[in-house]
Amino acid sequence: MKALILFGHGARDMRWREPFDRLAALWSQQIPSTPVELAFLELMEPSLENAIGLLCAKGATSITIVPVFFGQGGHLRNDFPVLLEACRRQYPDISLSATPAVGESETVLQAIVKFGIKHL
After folding, report:
1. Which of 68, 80, 90, 115 has its CA 20 to 30 A from that of 41?
2. In the chain, what are the domains?
């Protein structure tokens, strides 16, 4: 079974995660056949490792991790590959893949332009 992890940075203020919760809820409503979990690099739970465990418990065998970051900063270039490799060692029977940061997508950038135009 395929599954998805929406991976964010994390923050001390719990309200910061509200858009992530809404994003996961939208995914679940629109694509209920593919489980989704949130995961955070730091300061919030679940961690990437724990989110993978949650999805494995639901029967996932292939998990795509979507970094919900605007760009490929140091965390995604340096910290994330190490974390992903550790998870691959911990879950050798699970196919783990990752997309580029969502902010690298032309579709996402165009959505932001449309958002700006709407609010002019």
Report:
1. 115
2. 2-118 (3.40.50.1400)
